[in-house]
Structure formats: C-alpha cells, structure tokens
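DM between two lab members

TW: hey, do you still have the LysR family transcriptional regulator entry open?
JB: yeah, one sec
JB: this one, 294 aa:
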Amino acid sequence: MSNQIEFRHIRYFLVVAEELHFRRAADRLFISQPGLSKQIKQMEEDLGILLFERHNRKVILTNAGAYLKKELTINLKNIEHTLTHAKLLNDGKNGDLKLGYVGSAMQEVIPDLLMKFKTSFPSIVFSLREMDNEKQIEGLLSYDLDLGFVRLERVPRGLTLKPILKESFCLVLPENHQINADNFKSLMQFKEESFILFDPKYSSSYYEKVMQLFDDSGFSPIVSHNTIHAGSIYKLVENNFGISIVPKSLATKDNPKIKFIELKKAKQKTTLSVVWNTDNRNPILKHIVSLLKN
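TW: and the structure you got?
JB:
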C-alpha cells in the first residue's frame, strides 16, 4: 500500500461507500464534489484497486470496494474502542462495556449481573440501551455493542450465544377477570378474548414461540394490539382492552390492577441468552465472558 494513503482518504472512501453518491458524500464531508472525486481517484491509483463503478446516474461498489468498506469499518471501530479505552485508563477507569438488552432482562437478570460485574470490576464504565433483538445483533456485528441480552434461538456466524435463563410464560389479566389461578384450565378458556402481544418486529422468534402456545391449544388468537413495551401491555390490560402473555420474569406485583397466571404445564418456554461477537477486541469483554461462563 502506498504511503500516500492517509486517514482522511479512508474517511472519504467510507462516506462515498455509504452514500453511493459523490455530491451527497461531498456535502457530508464539507468539501467540493470535484475535490472528493479527485481524492478517491488518487486513492484507487495508489492502491491499484478499482473501488467504484461510476455510471451516469449511480455509483456502485466493486467487490474489492465492498470488502474494503466492511474491513475498514470494523478496524476503525477497533481503533475508536482502543482510543476510548486509553482515555478511560487515563481517567482511572479499567474500561467500558456497552450492553444492549430486551426489556424483560432488566427485571432481575441484568441488575444481578451488574452487581456481580461491579464487584469483580469496580472501575468499569457500563452503558445500557434497551433494544430489540435485531438491533442488538446489528450492534454486535458492527462493534457498537459489546454484549447483548436477547430472546433468540440462533445468531449469525461470528457471534456466540449463551442461554442464561429459561422460563415459563404467564397470562396477564385484569384483576377483576373471572379466570384466576384456581379455575384456570387451559388457554382455550380465552378463545374469544382479545390479546395484546409483543410486536413480532421486536422479536420474530419470540412471537413465533407465543403463537405455538395457541397452536398447541387448538386456536388462533384475536390479536387486537401489538406493542414493544411491557408497560404499554399492562396499561392496556388494566383498562380492559384485552389480555396478554409475557415471560415470567416480567410478572410484577407492583400493579394491583392486573394479575398473572403462570402457564406451568405449557411445553413452550422462552429463553433469555447473552450474546457477544467473538472477534470483539474490547479487553474488558473477555473478563466479563469468563465471569458469565462461571
């Protein structure tokens, strides 16, 4: 590689690779379009690689360009993490860990794990973001996240999935509903009820598992509402807009207007797992993973 390639050339290339449009890329970079085109052309000549196919109305990455975009993005993330880690060390911290999680993980699992993490690594800075499964996978693959807590059966190659909690589902009913734990027999008792469920876009595999509960009970549910937040589900249930099904870990005693019935006999269970990118070079991650495995 020519020693004329500088960091700015890489930045220029990545912006053009994202936009696939030289004018828009130039606007983002606050440089002229002819100047940007010249820099990319010079980069191609120095590397001896054609990065883009240029057509009248569109720009397309070549195979070499697509590969370079992927690898440079990953490596720049690693550089960013390295610089961040160095700054934290300078400030007396041992590092940082970025976690994503589905809402149900925040009830007990994450608080308990964070207490263990903080005991073992008191100088780590933790940042947490509630995200759906798909967004977490994207974040882990792009190195924007270090660790995720998901409800998935499988993950893309390069990620490691470790189950940490297998649990039953629970019915969520208004407090005054005629069915309770004593007279509950099966889901068939709710065949004519409206159900409020987690949006399938939040977790398609989780939604499918809930649907299997109905399949096993011999009917298709009337789904009146979909949402991504347990709080929204509970508010709708308490106001008699329908009933719901949630993981047992989301059952709460803090709301006297709703009640829960655990589906203990149902063969369908839901699993909360922790997931990470095996190529993630965050030096703290290997210690956290070791703690999780133990």
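TW: got it. Residues 169-268 form a domain with the D-Maltodextrin-Binding Protein; domain 2 fold (CATH 3.40.190.10). The two ends are 45 Å apart (CA to CA).
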